[in-house]
Structure to design on (223 residues):
């Protein structure tokens, strides 16, 4: 063991107990992993198997979406520290967890594509959180990552907007620059699924540009 490790042992991000992993086993066991019935299309937890009301009245452009956990407790804290305190190592750790989840889903896809940030947002944050997750997933499942989806317009934080404002807010926010994606199946990756509006708009852009099918996986989901 290195002297540095003896003097400053690494600690769990959440409980601060000594842990060789970013998040210790005990804290990992507290993550609200989504189990039980979810909407067959958008992946929202529902009372019984089937399709949720929202997808029945207005089906999304993506064919399927799924999230690893609810956006609360341990996963929420971890995502916030990763994004806003710029802790990339937390993102790599979360990406590995998500990679195992995607491996279990066994959805077939030709490319993994992260939801992009605009140039301005990327400059201020220093990295795209979804790209860090997508890269780890790509390594674990052995499907190449493409950065061909580009964001031309940043959406305002959507917490204070109503549904219509949210939809307008992201209209024509994406472009596709990778011709290799044409006729291929794409797995879109994002950190948090909120209303699904962002992933739906990105999916629409991809389908408009000849992508065969879009599925979505996110680390967490707000309900
Ligand atoms: Zn812990
Ligand atoms: Zn649904």
């Amino acid at each position: 063991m290195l002297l540095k490790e003896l003097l400053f042992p690494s600690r769990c991000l959440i409980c601060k107990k000594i842990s060789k992993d970013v998040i210790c086993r005990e804290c990992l066991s507290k993550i609200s992993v989504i189990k039980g019935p979810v909407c067959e299309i958008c992946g929202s937890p529902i009372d019984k198997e089937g399709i949720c009301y929202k997808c029945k009245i207005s089906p999304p452009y993506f064919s399927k979406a799924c999230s690893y956990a609810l956006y609360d407790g341990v996963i929420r804290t971890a995502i916030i520290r990763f994004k806003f305190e710029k802790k990339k190592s937390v993102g790599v750790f979360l990406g590995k967890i998500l990679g195992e989840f995607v491996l279990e889903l066994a959805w077939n896809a030709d490319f993994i594509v992260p939801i992009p940030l605009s140039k301005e947002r990327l400059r201020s944050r220093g990295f795209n959180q979804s790209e860090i997750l997508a890269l780890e997933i790509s390594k674990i499942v052995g499907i190449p990552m493409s950065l061909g989806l580009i964001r031309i317009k940043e959406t305002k934080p959507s917490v204070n907007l109503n549904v219509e404002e949210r939809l307008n807010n992201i209209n024509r926010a994406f472009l596709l620059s990778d011709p290799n994606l044409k006729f291929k199946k794409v797995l879109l990756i994002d950190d948090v699924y909120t209303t699904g509006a962002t992933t739906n708009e990105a999916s629409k852009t991809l389908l408009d540009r000849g992508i065969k099918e879009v599925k979505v996986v996110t680390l967490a989901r707000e309900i």
